[in-house]
Amino acid sequence: MATLGLIVLALAVLVIVWAVFAYNRIITARNRADSSWSQVDVELRRRRDLVPRLVETVGGYATHERETFDRVASARSAAEGAAGPAEASPAEGSLGAAVGRLLAVGEAYPELRAQERFSQLVRELHDTEGRIAIARQIYNDTALTYNNQIQTAPTSFLGWALRLRPMAYFEPEGAT
After folding, report:
1. Torsions phi, psi for 60 (to 5 deg)
2. Of 2, 60, 70, 79, which has fewest CB within 10 angstroms of its CB?
3. In sequence order, what are the residues at sequence separation of 6 or more whose Cβ sits closer than 8 angstroms to the Cβ of residue 43?
4. What pTM was estimated for this model as a whole?
5. What is the pLDDT of residues 90-118, one digit of tens each?
6. Which of 134, 135, 127 is nearest to 35 (CA)?
7. Any residues with CB less than 8 A from the CB of 54 and at least 6 apart, and which?
8. Quick check: 72 and 58 in contact, CB under 8 A?
């Protein structure tokens, strides 16, 4: 009887130790994904900060393109108001498409293309787009790791018990 009690106690201790380690792995994965999202957000803000300067520069040459400028402003506002990857994905995709149209307008004016300020803003925008792509990939990889932790056995039981939800991926459509 004492042996059976020790076996049950040992199993209980093993389950508790496993649960603590599994919980720590899940929380570590979630924290990494949250940190990665913060980096994506920094780069998205950098892009949103470039947009008004780009609109101002293009607007000096293409004053009749008011509809394009309004779309860019509207898309930028929606992107600024988005919280988290699920909301940011469509909003940032719309902003990327609007900025693409704005750049197309700018490219239609040879004197604007020749201006150093416009060229520098376009370079900054393209550099920022590259940073966004890298940060997005890192975020999506860390979100995948977290989602796998809470959706695969045996840690899925712990994820279910703690009511953990999968993280959304950041996949904007129509980005420049």
Report:
1. -65, -25
2. 2
3. 128, 131, 132, 135
4. 0.87
5. 999 999 999 999 999 888 888 888 889 99
6. 135
7. 99, 102, 103, 106, 118, 121, 122, 125
8. no
Q: DSSP of 101-158, one letter per residue? A: HHHHHHHT-HHHHT-HHHHHHHHHHHHHHHHHHHHHHHHHHHHHHHHHHHHSTTHHHH
How many Å apart are CA 168 and CA 162, to the nearest integer? 18
* 17 membership: H or E segment, kind and range: helix 2-59
DSSP one-letter string for 61-107: T-TT-HHHHHHHHHHHHHHHH--HHHHHHHHHHHHHHHHHHHHHHHH
Q: How far is the C-alpha of 161 from the C-alpha of 21, rounded, in Å?
A: 15
Instruction: Provide the sign of the torsion angle of the four alpha carbons 94, 99, 102, 107, taken in this order.
Output: negative
DSSP designation for 19: H
* Residue 74 contacts residue 89 (beta carbons within 8 Å): no
What pLDDT score was predicted for residue 138?
Answer: 98
Of the pLDDT bands very low, low, confident and very high (cuts 50, 70, 90), residue 176 is: very low
For residue 82, which of 68, 96, 69 has the smallest C-alpha distance?
96
Q: Closest by alpha carbon to 155, among 21, 8, 14?
A: 21
